[in-house]
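Homework help board

Subject: predicted structure for assignment chain

Our instructor gave us this sequence and asked us to write out the predicted structure in token form, then describe one feature. I got the tokens but I'm not sure how to describe them. Can anyone check?
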Amino acid sequence: MTALLESILRGLGVGSVYALLALGFVIIYKSMRVISFAQPAFMLTGAVLVTYLSPPLGFYVAVPLAALLTGALALGTERVAIRPMVGRPVFTVAIITLGIDIAVRVVVNGWIGLNVRQTGDPWGLKTWKIAGLLVERRHAAMLVAATVLVAGLFAFFRYTRMGLAMRATSYDQEAALAQGVSVGAVFGLSWFLAGALASVAGTFVAVGPGVTESLWIVALTALPVIILGGLDSLPGAVIGGLVVGIVQEVTATYQGHLDFLGGNVSVITPYIVMLVVLLVKPYGLFGTREVERV
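My token output:
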């Protein structure tokens, strides 16, 4: 029972990072109706920036500053590479984002070097013992940071003028334009927010293990998360991230009992969960069902 509870707590921490990554995917999809495959690159960029900014400025200053810089990079990328493609087929834009991801990662990898870079976080792999359960401090920090960011993001969408504009654009771009909403500004802000969220997620993934060139692979787990929760659902991204994180960690804890499936079955559990959900709900748990009349 103790092992199960500890794995659930680990899953909440890991799942909160998946949720932040998934939110970035969903925000861009809701505004532009395209999946941005550049998120892994922004995630890696943010983590690398923290490794350089943390020694002189401290971890707590480096993280938000790296998020702002990564968001600015994402905004510039949208302006230069994506904005001219508005109105083109969605598949074409998606392929361009894939090219952006590769290009940015190649440049960022040059700043990593041969050694593992550390984020300078104050937790590392240290643990607390709470009610007889071992809780890694980094997982608690992940969950707290994600909770604050998600609450702030939801409040932004609900109570601010720009948040309302983004919600209107996600429903109908032409109607939003008719009401005076700057759809271009919405596109840019969606990329900025997605880049900033990816930066924070990448930093927390690197807490403890450090930053390597393979860090970006973690972002691929966000794809089954957004399919699970629903491509256009922000709450679905959060819930899907937590569910996938818990399932993955619980599976990793007990995969010794599943030797016939191999030693790394936990790696594929997000995709198995996604397939099972899609068989029942093709639009995800909270996705909007599209109805076409012929």
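Reply (TA_rk): Your tokens look well-formed. For the description, you could write something like this. Strands lie at 127-130, 133-136. That's the kind of observation they're looking for.
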